[in-house]
Design a protein that fits this description.
The protein has 9 helices and 5 strands, in the order E-H-E-H-H-H-E-H-E-H-H-H-E-H. The chain has 191 residues and is α/β, with parallel strands linked by helices. The structure holds adenosine-5'-diphosphate.
Amino acid sequence: MFNIIIFGPPGAGKGTQSAMLLEKYNLVHLSTGDVFRSNIKVETELGILGKSFIDKGELVPDEVTIAMVEDFLKTTKESNGFIFDGFPRTISQGEALSKILMQLDTNIHAVLALEVEENELVSRLLERGKVSGRTDDQSEDKIRNRFAEYNNKTEPLLEFYAAKNVLHRINGLGEIDDIFNALVHRGRLCT
Ligand code: ADP
């Protein structure tokens, strides 16, 4: 298995680049944000719980998110590997992911971190909010709160993965295809 984490702050382009990686490498995509949103749509228990945090721009508690991911991974064993998009977002999630992958006899091969400065991200998210219908993209307060969550809880994962020698930082500003090529080359994915 070949497992990739696509990492970065809200609006960095994780979803866009994941879609391109999926097509090229035939991997299974796990976007925790997408899983929460589809649960919110059909009002499952998980969706109702998740919505109360997502609507405030806060992270969903670790125990809820980790249980959801564990369930997904253990029921999708047959694959070439996974692209994790929006997970892990805390050190506890990172540790839990290592443990689950170890049980599946695999690990994380590359963490591709997209770097974009905050003011550019805010304007991207406000633009996305106009078309996506995502309420967490429609208010600058919620967006700023998501950045605060990112800076406090998610960014420390960069060190966590740097220490494992799997971290690759990529400039997330520019043409989508150029960024994709940079991901493939800097992440040493096969071409
Ligand atoms: P973005 O990267 O633009 O923030 P996502 O779709 O990845 O969008 O996430 C949307 C929201 O879903 C987050 O702000 C958070 O509330 C929740 N969420 C997604 N993934 C996680 C996670 N791994 N841990 C906790 N909350 C999460």
